[in-house]
Amino acid sequence: MRNVDYIIVGGGYAGFFFAHQLIMNNKSFVIFSDDRKSASQVSAGIINPVVLKKFTTFWLAEEQIDLLKKTLSEIENYTGQNYLIQENIHRIFHDEKEKELWLKKAEHQDLKLFLNKYFKDLDTVKNRFQSGVVNESARLNVADFFSDFNEYLTENKLLIQERFHYSKLQEHLYKDFQFKNIVFCEGMGVKENPYFSEIPVVPNKGHHLKVKLSRPLPFQLTLKKKHFLFPLKNNSYYYGGTYDRDQLHHKIDDSAKEQLINGLCEFYPHDFEVEEIEFGFRPTVKDRRPIIGRHPKHENFYVFNGLGARGILNGCYFSRELYEHIENGKPLHPEVDLKRFQKYKKISNKVIIFAMSSRRIK
């Protein structure tokens, strides 16, 4: 029998960033994660404080970015690498009106830190109306982050590479593990979880391309018009990703591939070759807030889900919030607390979830 403070189920951003909190606080744990690639592992890794369609920011953007920088420096201490690629996003403008809107929004208190007022002309790509630089934006080296973190966990006997079987779970016991708390960080896999299957996460399917450009870009940065383009290893480039809540089958959608090819052709006027296409299912929530909290009946069962398209920032920031809640009783933000969806009915001494509701928060 092995005694641990925590079991984590899931090996995406939520699971790994929560594992980091446990490492930093000297808590014992194991992670259960099978060989399937999570949406996190095929994500672009974009770190972006601005919604680049309407030039707005979002809740806790500055705080999330500051904590992410600190967290990645801490992770570097035990993996030996910092995964933050400090290459700003350059948003290619569609027309003059977008430039004017950008400058107007750059005067706002919550955006002036992020929207650079000095526009850029870029070579090799079509940018007739120039591009705007998003300060404080960056991206994560996703492949190395997961590869190195998995290696660290494996070397320290913290990773169990197998599917988690709910039928073998008891209040403080799972197979040969006795634990204090269990945290489910399963993304869309939560729909198979009998304890949290009713949380209102909605799959959002995203495709991206790996392409070879006939004329490589003469700069190291992230371009954005409809989708993101940035360099990978071996002279390849990432381009993506799409958003689709309707075509949810586990196959590549030809329409998504066509959308991406057309989007790249809009600003890259040279030949390119599609080397690979991948997709994943982001767990999203209608109010665009993560879902964290404790099960209403099993007091040591927790969920950490619904990170959406901002998986890196949400995963990093709210992993600390969840840890402080469990260990130190810090109240959760009502905006992310699981309880915002739950209505309870007491029958005898039992608590039963009988309805779920959602509310939209901008």
Q: What proportion of the residues form beta strands (DSSP E)?
A: 25-35%
Could you tell me the radius of gyration in angstroms? 21 Å
Largest sheet: 7 strands, mixed
Low-confidence stretches: 344-362
**How many runs of DSSP E, i.e. beta strands?**
19
Mean pLDDT score: 93
- Helix fraction? 10-25%
Choose one word for the global shape: globular
> What is the straight-line distance between the termini?
47 Å
**What's the helix-strand series?**
EHEEHEEHEEHEEEEEEEHEEEHEE
Structural class: alpha/beta
Can you walk through the features of this model?
There is one protein chain. By secondary structure, this protein is an alpha/beta fold. The chain contains six helices and 19 strands. Strands 1, 2, 8, 9, 10, 16 and 17 form a seven-stranded mixed sheet that branches. The radius of gyration is 21 Å and the shape is globular. Residues 344-362 have low confidence and may be disordered.
